[in-house]
Amino acid sequence: MADANATIPSALRPVAGVGGIVRDALAFIGSLAWLLWDMAAWVSRALLLRQVRFGYSALVSQTVRVGVRAIGIVTLVSGAIGAILALQTEPSLADFGQSDKVANIIVVAVFRELGPLVAAIVLCGFAGAAIAAELGTMVVGEEIEALEAMALNPIRFLVVPRVLATAVSLFVLSVLSDLVAVTAGGLVGVFFLSIPYEVYWDNTLDQVSTSDFLSGLVKSVVFGLILGLIACLNGLRVVGGAAGVGKATTDTVVQTVVTIIVVDLFFTALFYAVGWN
Fold first, then answer.
1. Is the domain of 91 the same as that of 39?
2. Is there a single domain that holds both residue 140 and residue 155?
3. Is-contact 94 46, C-beta < 8 A?
4. 11, 110, 177, 182, 264 from 75: Cα distances, Å
5. What pTM does this model have?
6. Least C-beta-crowded within 10 Å: which of 84, 118, 163, 270?
7. Within 13 A of 37's CA, how many CA atoms are on the CB side?
8. Looking at the 3D structure of the chain, how many domains does it have?
9. From CA 163, how far away is CA 226, in angstroms rounded?
10. What is the mean pLDDT of residues 210-214?
């Protein structure tokens, strides 16, 4: 690779660097698409063919591991976000005599963006890295090869339950994140900012709409699929023993956060274009 780069004129090396980044990004997207396709094929077979078992016990155990155990940290972070929003927005609104509109800002920001986004980022560090490390350790220990030797497909038995568990967990955790953040913001508004409870509650109900809630839920499911796919992909292609496992864990966190934010931007622009806001 070094010899190939040496033959490139210095003026064209930035272009070659950009081309390499684009190539790696397309390879990454293609790998995720292949893994999603293979996973969808196994789910379809399990639903349509009686002889192919779905593995509900594995799905339940992974959901408990990924989702239930993350309830505490998601509650803590979401509550802090709601309180921060109330304390940060009230001074600016007070300059215009609109302190009671804190509720309107919090409910829109949380339901449309921060609820699913915060839950996804928390779950990325809580579960995504763990999934990548677990699968990577299985690769290093040749457990994946042992499954294949016994004619057991790793995608079916390892990837499917983990990806579905992250999607289901993030869906539920997003709802929890919404409720906790709005409640925490309301408590700060009522007890610290002297906003009457009835005013805060009425403004919240007047501002929130079905599209706000549904757009956040759509994002949460997609974020969950992205998180599970990236974690499983990095775990399954570990090379190099313990160092490879560490690299897969780091790559999972970085790639998931970046991908989720970019996808969030895409969805926000799409919902804005279609008027779903």
1. no
2. yes
3. no
4. 52, 13, 6, 11, 21
5. 0.87
6. 270
7. 6
8. 2
9. 8
10. 84
Query: Same domain for 33 and 50?
Result: yes
Answer yes or no: do 69 and 125 share one domain.
Answer: yes
Where on the phi/psi map is residue 238: left (φ > 0), alpha (ψ -120 to 50), or beta?
beta
Residues 124-136 have a mean pLDDT of: 88
pLDDT in tens, 224-235: 999 999 999 999
Reference 234, options 251, 219, 217, 221; nearest CA is: 251
Q: How many residues are there in the chain?
A: 277
Apex CA 201: angle with CA 195 and CA 204, to 5°? 105
Q: Which two tokens stand for residue 162?
A: 């983990």
CA distances in angstroms from 257 to 117, 123, 226, 246, listed in the order given:
9, 10, 10, 17
- The alpha carbon of 228 is separated from its chain's Cα centroid by a whole number of angstroms, namely 8
Give the domain range for residue 72.
55-273
Question: Could you write out the DSSP letters of every residue in 70-99?
Answer: GHHHHHHHHHHHHHHHHHHHHHHHHTTT-G
Predicted confidence band at 180 (pLDDT cuts at 50, 70, 90)? very high
| Gap between the Cα atoms of 178 and 118, Å rounded | 10
42 and 88 together in one domain: no
244: burial class by Cβ within 10 Å (0-12, 13-18, 19+)?
middle
Residues 6+ apart with CB under 8 A from 228: 128, 131, 159, 162, 163, 164, 165, 166, 167
Residues 21 and 74 placed together within one structural domain of the fold: no
* Residue 268: both structure tokens together: 């926000």
Mean pLDDT in residue range 81-98: 89
Residues 267, 224 share a domain: yes
Residues 127, 70: contact at Cβ < 8 Å?
yes
* CB proximity list for 162: less than 8 A, separation 6 or greater: 62, 66, 131, 228, 231, 232
